[in-house]
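Build the 3D complex.
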Amino acid sequence: MRRGWTRRELLEALAGAGVGLGAAALWVGRPAVGTQGFPWSSRGAESARVIGAAYLSAHPEESAVLPAFLRGLRARPGDARGLAGELAALVRADFERGNTVRLDGWVLSRTEARLCALTCDPP
Amino acid sequence: MPIDSRSLEPGATLHTDVCIVGAGAAGIALALELAGTGVGVALLESGGYEVEPATQELCRGSIAGRPYFPLEAARLRYFGGTTNHWSGLCHPLDPIDFEARDWVPHSGWPIDRAELTPYYERARPLCELGPDPPVLGRRRPADAPDIVPFPGDRLRTSVMSFSPPTRFGTEYRGALERAGNVRIFLHANAVELEPEREARRLRRIRFATLEGNRFEVRARYYVLAVGGIENARVLLASRSVRPRGLGNENDLVGRFFMEHPHLAGAAQWLLTDSSLYRDLYRWPDAPEGRYVDARMGVLTLPAEVARAERLLGFSADLQLSSEAQDTEAFRSLRRIVRDAGRGRVSEDLGRHVGNVLGDLESALRGAYERATGSPGDRVVLTTRSEQVPDPESRVTLTGERDALGIPRAELRWRLGEGDFASLRRGLERIATEVGRLGLGRMQLLEDEPELPWTDRVVGGWHHMGTTRMSADPARGVVDAQCRLHSVENLFVAGSSVFTTSGWANPTLTLVALAIRLADHLRRLLG
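Done.
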């Protein structure tokens, strides 16, 4: 049986899937302009932590949800590419259902916001 | 040759079949349609063939409520009217704009889009436009390489056309001067629309020049075509028989003033791939200050989405940008240069110059990027939206009088929570769809300290609705033929007759309505 995913592997999966705003920062690799925007840098992981912290600040109840969310991801079989594909599908489904969150004006999938939150809230 | 009203015999009475007051886009379009027929036309313009400060000063008024541009800046009072500073953007109203929508109070024209379709086709050549471009968005990306791939029915690309822009006065004065049945009167200011005692018919219109010469015109039919604010002002000020003004028995004249709320930087869109952007969405270049067969794609919502989500109409310009180009400094620099290219001084020039000098590096970097065609890294959205018709958004008269003794106009432009909420939901709809399709992520404009995002919303110099059209005199000033309900030989032309505003710029529609009115008058005159 495959062991569960580590946080590092999840971040790599995030980047590989091109999922989420943190991933966008990884692709673009340049600062983003916001009004009172996130202090983005060219380091995507740091961007993800900033987004994650903002998400948890706006939705503190999510701290209780994250452990189960992470367990669910770790339990998924397959390789990193497969997980990336599944995450991408989850994100698409979020947008399809309107399961989105607003952080500093950014419209994000809840799944990608939770993924970013995982980078700063180890279960 | 035009007749200078200052040279007329004092107290003269002129007789004609159709008296058109105002030589802007509506008045000139109407006169052109009647030119060369057996109908006698008098086209009377307040100004001359060029702008004159003393006449322009007649446009000055006051602003109450929501901040607005000075009225003497947003309007032009000489031959050609506001087309003399028109941007040239053209798009017809959509069919849904004419419908009674239960989520839009006071909506529902007495005509439908199909009624106007043939008149839009006749209006396009007057605005020097090519064939009507298609609405895009239902085609697969492989078939439509010129649009951002939005498969499905949730978003749409509408294509706006650019008039060169046509300065109606310059372009058409020759044809009107040569028309044997049209007389052009310059420097003629309508000071009183005088009805017969029972006020069922207009008896005459009295005119005056700034130099004090006075004369009158008597016609079989009269058309008021002096603009969305001035049409209401003239009617309200005509109180010789009706103390509340002409056509104002139900207190509707001047009410329901509508603009197109514009929000620059409403959102920014980080593209997953900058190659997704298409040149169709780029604001076109105007070689030597003139657009040639120019078009621009804008994002709009399909009618099905607007109905399902109970949204007002809106469109979003998509301009590729960069960090430097997304600054006030660069935007101000662009505005200064663009206005100079059109031969006019920017409104609020001092503020624009201050912005440029305050961040000269961004202004210059942005200009360099534009000049060298450097690709941007983001798309900035600017929205133009429909507003809910609001009877408390209105034009009234003040106690101050102009040089002709006419009470000045006061504009109280009002926007409500419904207008802002619809815009916000529309932007969220776009952001959600962009995310769903994997095209990137969007950031919507949020409140800043001491500056709510709603305070950034400005008008577009579009003045609509103040003599709105309705089949019911209790709900409108003019009927479906643009005739005042209560004055059987007086008609109104221009965007003041719009029942709702839609999102599209009004010029093409008001020209189409003027052409339709011309056909109606010809039928009446036999």
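Chain B touches chain A at residues 267-268, 270, 272, 323, 326, 377-378, 428, 431-433, 435-436, 438, 440-446, 448 (CB under 8 Å).
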